[in-house]
Design a protein that fits this description.
Blueprint: H1 6-16, H2 19-24, H3 33-51, H4 55-61, E1 64-66, E2 69-71, H5 76-85, H6 104-117, H7 119-138, H8 141-153, E3 157-161, E4 177-180, E5 186-196, E6 206-212, E7 225-230, E8 232-234, E9 240-243, E10 246-251, E11 262-267, E12 278-283, H9 289-325, H10 346-378, H11 381-416, H12 428-435, H13 445-456, H14 463-482, H15 490-513, H16 517-522, H17 524-545, H18 553-566, H19 570-587
Bound molecules: flavin-adenine dinucleotide.
Length: 593
Amino acid sequence: MYKAPVEEIVFTLRHVAGLSAAIADGRLGELSDDLVEAILAEAGRFATEEIAPLAETGDRQGVVLEDAQVKTPDGWAALYRAWAEGGWNSLTASPDFGGQGLPHMLHVAAMEMWNGGSMAFAIGPTLTIGAVEALTAHGSEALKSTYLPKMVSGEWMGSMNLTEPHAGSDLGVMKTRAERRGDGSYRLFGQKIFITYGEHDFTDNIVHLVLARLPDAPAGTRGISLFLVPKFLVEADGSLEARNDVFCHSVEHKLGIRGSPTCTMIYGDGRFGGEAGAIGWLVGEENRGLACMFTMMNNARLAVGMQGVAIAEAATQKAIAYARERTQGRAPGWQGSGMSPIIEHPDVARMLLTMKALTQGARAITYACAHAVDMAHATQGEEARHWAERASLLTPVAKSFATDAGVEVASLGVQVHGGMGFIEETGAARLYRDARIAPIYEGTNGIQAIDLVTRKLPLSDGAQMRGFIAELRGIADAVRASNDPAFGDTAVRLEASLADLEAATAWLGTALVEGRQPEALAGATPYQRLFGLVLTGIYLAWGALADAGDGRKGERTALCRFAAENIIAETAALKDRVVNGAASLEAARAALG
Ligand SMILES: Cc1cc2nc3c(=O)[nH]c(=O)nc-3n(C[C@H](O)[C@H](O)[C@H](O)COP(=O)(O)OP(=O)(O)OC[C@H]3O[C@@H](n4cnc5c(N)ncnc54)[C@H](O)[C@@H]3O)c2cc1C
């Protein structure tokens, strides 16, 4: 069963993502290394002892919808209440509303462990925390004081309602309608699909954040507004009033994360009597809803990246344990009697090391992104702008690379188990099924790649990306300067991969400036992977250079070398695909019929 990797997480936060430096510089207030360790140890304990044991039940039972009520799997509602009572929902929220105001880095680390326990469980709280962030940033004082304290404590959960049947990646065509009432409130009418935890039995009330269009709104994304629509209306004293005109019409039967309800939500069809229309309140300004929702979506993207890391970690743990126990054949050089454990076979070791390297690379990228988010909040002026740009640049890479790694690693995990991987009882298959949604939701990885290439690379006229590459090069230089033979060819490989990244970045920049957008977009996904692989190699090296005094420096150096000499070399082919792939792609369209 999954065991939260607290030590590895603390190491990555401190020595790779920059947590210790930020604490030492006094950027993170009262936070100390000891406090970080204590909080994460307890979050890890909860993940290992409370969440993980219920993951399989959730997958097997799924959710049941009866009379617009969703029943979650056995034990899950109590699990949620224990989680909320532990104060976990309030880690990053503002102290003004009962939150603990802790850095984002701590939150993503805890989130990794909860998702490692069960991704289907952890996705619900993740969205509530996103809703809290959006409301804190854009809600009126009245909305904040009514809803935030209970959402921060976890007494009420939130949901995020964007998708409609014909409006997924392209939200500009959504149709859900909002009508103004004379009293400052609105009435909403429409249908939202795929709404995670849109209905459930965890909490008495659910606070839906809903994108909708006013009658006189401009077409496209500039005509979308954000509304808060509670399941139950709330009295002035905070007690729950009448049922609002919103309900769950159906739940989806899914490939994975089966314990989580994925709901079709109907707004304003008069199901509960009285005047039709779900009553809602505007969050932010009219027609500026998408910008407000982005507050939630950016953090949600990073959180989904964490899900990739979590699944990758869980799959790696499971595969290593299995490979130590399962015996087959005799590995070259095996001295024992009888068959050798499969971990002794070079091909199995290759799979396991690839899993480990991708997991740790993805973890470092997502934590570095969270560090940039924290630094943007902890600094001012030019420095804050720099960190906000860094967070912006890293978000699509963190989301896409980590979620692709989740799928790749979980698939390798199935492979390591052989036929037993395909059989549900080992749990390897569940991880693979759960992992598969993460590259799709919160903006598909294809959409992330477009965002990276067209909006993030041009930040500050390309200076943000150039500065970042220069920093990464400094780490490759440090590997070279270390003269440590255990690094093997790491320095050479890192330098080559950085040259690939630089060349591909320059090529994309020129293509965009020259208006050759189709060519640039054809290479966006290979570029995103190239970027993620370079970061994986560099961050593994950064970790290997650090000496945490835990006796694992040699192990980290060896893993870094394995990644540099076996995985990172892929960057040369990826660069070629970015620079030379578009023409053949266009020419081959005919093959699609
Ligand atoms: C289990 C689950 C939970 C979800 N939870 C929520 C939730 O809580 N709230 C919510 O609002 N939504 C939720 N979603 C919806 C999810 O965010 C969307 O499914 C996702 O954004 C993709 O939209 P789509 O399904 O319409 O696919 P489409 O947009 O139709 O995309 C199909 C394919 O076309 C590609 N594509 C589309 N447009 C472009 C483009 N411009 N350029 C290049 N490629 C493009 C995509 O990358 C993808 O490969 C959930 C979905 C699932 C399955």
